[in-house]
Specification:
2 copies of one chain form a homodimer.
Chain A: H1 24-37, E1 46-47, H2 50-57, H3 61-73, E2 77-80, E3 84-87, E4 106-107, H4 118-129, H5 147-158, E5 169-172, H6 175-186, E6 192-196, H7 201-209, E7 213-217, E8 219-220, E9 223-224, H8 226-235, E10 240-243, H9 257-269, E11 273-277, H10 281-284, E12 303-308, E13 320-324, H11 326-339, H12 345-357, H13 359-381, E14 395-400, H14 406-415, E15 418-419, E16 421-422, E17 435-440, H15 447-461
Parallel strand pairs in A: 4-15, 6-7, 6-10, 10-11, 11-12
Antiparallel strand pairs in A: 1-3, 2-3, 5-13, 8-9, 12-13, 14-17, 16-17
Helix pairs in contact in A: 1-3, 2-3, 4-12, 5-12, 6-7, 6-11, 13-15
Chain A binds a DNA duplex through helix 1, helix 2 and helix 3.
Domain HTH gntR-type (chains A, B): 22-90
Protein name (chains A, B): PLP-dependent aminotransferase family protein
Keywords (chains A, B): Aminotransferase, DNA-binding, Pyridoxal phosphate, Transcription, Transcription regulation, Transferase
Chain lengths: 462, 462
DNA sequence: CAATTTGTGGCTACACATTTA
DNA sequence: TTAAATGTGTAGCCACAAATT
């Protein structure tokens, strides 16, 4: 029997108890899902507490717990002990970022990599084709990469501070693919991974696919806060942590060397698996005075270091390097064989040749130059108030005011001819009061187009 | 309080109740896992019934259910209602098949694809490099394939009976990758997929990675038995079915056209998602008199059709085509973007050029010729007693007697210089009394080596 | 700092379905 | 055919932990 009449305490959600079928918890979960996906329950809405809803429906409150759990794992809602359960910011839509050529828009959304440099790659492909061993690249051999390709990879990563042997490196099909492999290999459904409050939206989606919960941790201008991480680790059972130390996506924050060591101490203490996505090492190592080494070096036995070549060398050739501790090796190899079989040796060979011939460094220095120019242009339109973030980042993180509806803002800007992403897309958990736009500087067809787009943006935002 | 003393009914497994910590079910599961992985509990061992073990440990029997469930999802054990719980045949080892070059062995294990034909591919790569639009293949554009590449794909699959539009096809990085994407996109942990008793071992491993349970269904010489499928579907909640109609791996069984229709009726009735791995269509369509069309055509809205080009065209270029119904499209695209971002347009372009230039058909006819010769050689050593199975299969399924320890047999044959796989590797669930070897005919360096290997094998088995 | 609110995790009870004897 | 054995699935009970007031 319900105890209260609820007339004085209106609940934000009153599911029709007649619509409930057995099993109750599944039925309730699907009612909730419907109301969220249909938009009836807006993002941020506080759902009734478990006990209250249970009372209303006259069932046990743990049955509500179960129903809520189903929706939480699907990323539709999130729960905060003590304060309640809320509809997630990105509940009703997919935040996957991919190339979308439908309209003639100025691309500030997807972060490309100044594709102007691809002409250099073209010549190198010809050199690879001329090699007498080309045929050897077309079979099933060496699923994790041919030994000399791995040597070239080590050569490439040496300047970032990575040192290992060919047994602990694998060539995979891009950094995103490396992340998928890592989650498949080392985590189980229901595991938790700590991330920054704002993080790479495709990692959020990947976590959903693998049914891994993300635990957002607060940070400051030097990266994630060790105390906050410590707090969460001691509170709940956390299995891993995802970091992008060289230039966090989307915030452009670089983790300082001291902070790396502090974080490493917490990670070591709680035996987390560190997933270090160091896609931007090429922009940071040797450039930023504070840069010492990747976190992998501090925690080699419990880390996966991922070095993608899409941003630094060429985006269309899907090649990334994974470096891992011995304890993780077997599981990772198994996941690679089952998800990829292998990565095309032809693609890997082109990247290898670019590295060994020195062309890769040439490409990098061109890209740095382009990044410098693009950032200079950006600061003409949006002066950088502080020195926060990476000075050469391929994207910027612009604080905005008064545009709380992420979807609507993105739509309006599309109407203005600009594709850009609102910060809500990058939220790993609950919402925050501050709002931003992530503005890719590396994806327009020309620097003129970049200027045009930024001009439209300044006008729109003022 | 325990009710019985158990002295008269010895249990196969008596965990130390003092070793149990809280939570009980996790602790118990890990004790069980240890004893299985260490080999203390051999494959096939019957575990104590849930109630009996509960009585012994003096806890509730559903706590045992939970512990068993954890191990079942990990593939360590399997449960049969009414008869009990058993240690799985492949519990203690990984059955992932991958290239393994460690020793100088004759390769009868991994199924390659007569790599002699790769010389033709070499010339085509040069043609691709000469194209003026090569640079356009090096960016993030067209993540599911460039429109004309998709047209070529449709062109290629037309002879297999596939007709669709470019919106319902995607280019991915090989058939195994397509399977990973399909499982990630369309299934949830705990879902069940029906498979043949013997099935592709990397699919079994993939199911483990995604925590999907396989439900083995009996079959005969024409493929899976519809009645058995119907029975299982009405008994438990099954979400999908995995079939290789053109030439099942490892049994070489081809599903007859009548059987396809009967199976389709059951699949439709129970709304299963059909995963049709039609890697061998090129060996079957137009070759086998009975061949009419893929099952995709019978169930276009609830099927994923996978057409790999590794076996038919070139194994090192990681390219497969996925064809799917509109209802599945969005989820599949999301999984592709998150697991691959895209497949190398360079690789896809080479395959496209091979198809459009007619070279692909040339390669196929060479491979068919090689397959014919290899099968002829095989039948000199192991006369085919019946007409069961595909006549041109790249591998054969040899019944053997008296070698029940799969691992030991594989080891002994390695000692003889041969790498080959025992049927236990391909078991999707419980064990069977019949034993086989899967013998790859397409992976030796020469036909002479094939003969040598087969000779050693006949001698060993007699 | 204590009381209250709210969510988490684990064990138990029980109805039910299938298989086997 | 019926009874016993055995596994499956759902809901309830309860101790506890964290956050709020």
């Amino acid at each position: 029997m319900p105890v209260n009449s609820f007339e004085h305490y209106p609940m934000s959600w009153k599911p029709d108890s007649k619509a409930l079928k057995r099993p109750l918890y599944k039925s309730l979960a699907s009612l909730l899902e419907q109301d969220i996906v249909s938009g009836f329950l807006a993002p941020g809405t506080k759902l009734p507490p478990q006990r209250e809803l249970a009372d209303f429906l006259d069932i046990n409150f743990t049955t509500i717990t179960r129903a809520y759990k189903i929706c939480e794992v699907k990323g539709l809602i999130y729960a905060v002990t003590g304060s309640g359960t809320f509809v997630a910011p990105n509940a009703a839509r997919s935040i996957t970022i991919s190339r979308d050529k439908t309209a003639n828009l100025i691309e500030f959304g997807l972060v490309s990599s100044f594709e102007q440099t691809n002409a250099i790659v073209k010549d190198t492909i010809q050199k690879v084709v001329d090699k007498r061993y080309l045929e050897q690249l077309l079979n099933y051999n060496d699923p994790t990469g041919i030994p000399y390709q791995k040597s070239a990879a080590l050569n490439w990563m040496e300047s970032f501070g990575i040192h290992t042997d060919p047994e602990h490196i694998a060539i995979v099909s891009g950094a995103q693919n490396a992340l998928a492999i890592t989650l498949a290999a080392l985590f189980e459904p229901g595991n938790r991974i700590a991330t920054d409050l704002y993080t790479y939206s495709n990692f959020i989606e990947l976590a959903k696919i693998f049914h891994i919960q993300l635990v957002p941790i607060k940070g400051d201008q030097f990266g994630m806060l060790p105390d906050e991480l410590e707090k969460q680790c001691s509170q709940t059972n956390i299995h891993g942590i995802f970091l992008m130390p060289s230039c966090s996506n989307p915030t452009t924050v670089m983790i300082s060397d001291i902070r790396k060591q502090e974080l490493a101490a917490v990670i070591r203490k709680h035996r987390l698996i560190l997933i270090e996505d160091d896609m931007h090492a090429f922009l940071t190592a040797g450039m930023i005075p504070d840069y010492q080494q990747p976190m992998f070096n501090l925690l080699p036995q419990q880390s996966v270091y991922i070095c993608g070549t899409s941003k630094s060398i060429c985006s269309g050739l899907r090649v990334a390097y994974m470096v891992y501790g011995d304890a993780l090796r077997e599981k990772i190899l198994r996941a690679i064989f089952n998800i990829n079989v292998k990565t095309s040796s032809l693609d890997a060979e082109v990247i290898t040749e670019l590295i060994l011939s020195g062309k890769a460094h040439e490409i990098v220095s061109q890209k740095k130059q382009l990044a410098q120019t693009a950032n200079d242009i950006y600061s003409e339109y949006f002066p950088l108030k502080t020195t926060v973030g990476h000075p050469l980042s391929f994207y910027r993180w612009l604080p905005i005011q008064g545009h709380n509806d992420a979807f609507q803002l993105e739509m309006h800007l599309k109407g203005q001819g600009i594709r850009v992403f609102h910060s809500d897309r990058f939220l790993s958990g609950q919402t925050t009061p501050e709002k931003y736009l992530r503005i890719a500087l590396s994806s327009t067809n020309s620097l003129d187009e970049l200027k045009t787009g930024l001009k439209i943006l300044t006008q729109y935002l003022n």
